[in-house]
């Protein structure tokens, strides 16, 4: 964001024509009509290149006998693509319109796509178009598209889906007042001006209410802008409306990835609860309270409050329950009957793939997902299941779902199906993976410290009709986010040969020897990477601040720091700031596990080039043929405390509290 400040200083000194030329030559795209800035790769034509063509019709760009054109136009003519509608992928008409546009964009060349996009920007719902473009970027060979959103957080363009509504309201009032306010007003309303930046202190939901002793102490994690952005990217890789067969053509392991990502999210969430068990001596497992998201839609309506009560039993609930019973029956009998009568046995080798596909099709399919998200998203409040709703619940958007505690209960219920089948299996033999050519001698683990750091995200791009040529200041939302002091772990490893190996690191709750394998589902994978060992003593260094291929780093967009580093943000990678769970002032004891195994040849499966190129590069690199999450993919046995190639280490995470908040008030649990 240092580029933004630099540009603001240029506005008053550079003639307009020269300013346009400067922007179009570099890393910024420029909208001639509205003077809106947006970050795009320098090798892409500015996204509004064709916007001057006012009278163009879609039929002038695409052949009218194109089946995708015909399908999309039926939704246009019925008004389902109208500007001003609140877009959600769980509304049947809006979703089908977005899919029709995606199929149209997927079928044309890049030149036509740019012209269609220019037409759509003037005639189609903005959020619907954005979704269609993102899906097209992933499921096509149009490389120029993917970079346009992969490296910019969605909270920059849509901040009202990520931060409290009162912050957005204050920002709009500041604009109305031309950025002028007295110090007393600013202190009361928690906004401050430093130079040409106006920062608005931003809390999380429920900050102004009395504590209910339940979920609010973890809202900094559930409502973190980084993890919610990441989850929106995950949902793009696994669209609930896309069939298993289509996804399997693109990635035969898509079902395993779908399961693994959600398992990892739950493991990380459970680790965040560890400090509460000691500091507060309580659990949030049986907390059922209302949830107020504190978010507002573009149309001014608030996101609905989810009631903790549930509606009376109805046919849809009965249908979901029947699906649940049928799946559990399959697990109990260890067999699945397909629609064509084929019988497939559930085995140790295929259960993750088959169960994940069954759950996607039956509980996260179009009809079921729509009901489940409405039923749990609104709670006991009335929900319009079959009609357009201008204010859907947080569960109706991937980028807001994780905010609600009830969604984490739903994720755990999803994972329970896998756990139920795993209980029918004998623990696997981990001794089979011992590797005597490598010996882990020692690990030097420094003091690990967490703290809440300030993060300022720019609101200018996310608030409509802001002209940066006329607005001489930047407005930011200033949050407190969990972070940690960067650290390095040094592993001393002795190797008998020169060899390529795979190193896996996991973080889990405090445990001892065999007991750790009982808690396998609570271990979070910190990293999995290849390493070239030399004959003799090796020093493997793992750092939390240099794993660009594994994590997403958001400091480029943090105006609090104003660093000059390059953009390391990635929508499809877990946020680096949340890798380590919150510690305690006296120290939180956790377990670190490391295992080193030989690198194996990975068999690449031929896939259609038109679907493979962009999608595949978004997935993590594979170094062997072991299950995702190995060795904590399920319960293991025959663990040896002093095996050469794997080891548990006790680690302690400390938390550094800040009792005074510079410039403003933040919730006490954010110290």
TrEMBL record:
Record GO cellular component, one term: extracellular space
UniProt source species: Papilio machaon
Residue intervals of the Hemocyanin middle domain: 153-418
The protein, known as: Basic juvenile hormone-suppressible protein 2
SUPFAM superfamilies: Di-copper centre-containing domain, E set domains, Hemocyanin, N-terminal domain
Keywords: Storage protein
Coiled coil: none
Pfam family for this entry, one: Hemocyanin_N
Family under the similarity heading: Belongs to the hemocyanin family.
Limits of the Hemocyanin N-terminal domain: 63-137
InterPro entries per UniProt: Di-copper_centre_dom_sf (IPR008922), Hemocyanin/hexamerin (IPR013788), Hemocyanin/hexamerin_mid_dom (IPR000896), Hemocyanin_C (IPR005203), Hemocyanin_C_sf (IPR037020), Hemocyanin_N (IPR005204), Hemocyanin_N_sf (IPR036697), Ig_E-set (IPR014756)
Keyword hit for Hydrolase: no
Domain Hemocyanin C-terminal: 427-655
Matching PROSITE patterns: HEMOCYANIN_2 (PS00210)
GO molecular function, a single term: nutrient reservoir activity
